[in-house]
Amino acid sequence: MSKTRIRERIASISDGDRRTARHVARLQEPRLGMSWREKDICTMLRDGDLSGYKATRQAPGAPVLFVGAILFRTMADEGEVLSLSVRRSVRRQGIASALIAKTLISMKLAGVKSVFLEVSETNRAARALYQRYGFEKVGVRHNYYSTKHRKHHNALVLRLKLSSCRRKRKRGNFSTEKRK
């Protein structure tokens, strides 16, 4: 069995990056009825209303594959994760965790004390990820998400106090370079 070096990277999303905005828009879950359009993402990045990180993966001789992104904003000492998306084919490989970790570090360095986010109560995987980092439920937005089949789901409002940030993870991390 040959070993192939796969290059994996987390990088900031720049304000004029239309290509990344297109990828982020495609990765979002349209079934929840809350997808953002590429144009909106570009506008918010350009206007400074939004920050983000993207995750990419590349095998030798292959094109760079966009595998995930996180969009967030900060206001005074509060932060908000607006979107976390990972390509379906590479989920459960530490990509979302790496994006969250990078974002929390960035927020803490910016003086953020509390981070908020919303997650569908039906999204067990995301809820488990956020719980590993110490996010706690502080509210519910009833019937916040609607599917194309007109079903409604509640959004759980979660908060993390960065002073109590913890991470319980036993599996490997999405790193700068990894052997496969």
Question: What's the short version?
Answer:
It contains 4 helices and 8 strands. By secondary structure, it is of the alpha+beta class.
Descriptors for this entry?
single chain; 180 residues; alpha+beta; Aminopeptidase; 8-stranded mixed β-sheet; 4 helices; 24% helix; disordered C terminus
Summarize the topology.
Blueprint: E1 5-12, H1 18-27, H2 38-46, E2 51-58, E3 65-75, E4 78-86, H3 95-109, E5 114-120, H4 124-132, E6 136-146, E7 152-161, E8 177-179
Parallel strand pairs: 4-5
Antiparallel strand pairs: 1-2, 1-8, 2-3, 3-4, 5-7, 6-7
Bin the helical content: 10-25%
Find the count of extended strands (DSSP E, 2+ residues).
8
Overall pLDDT confidence: 76
Can you identify the CATH superfamily? Gcn5-related N-acetyltransferase (GNAT)
The coarse silhouette is globular
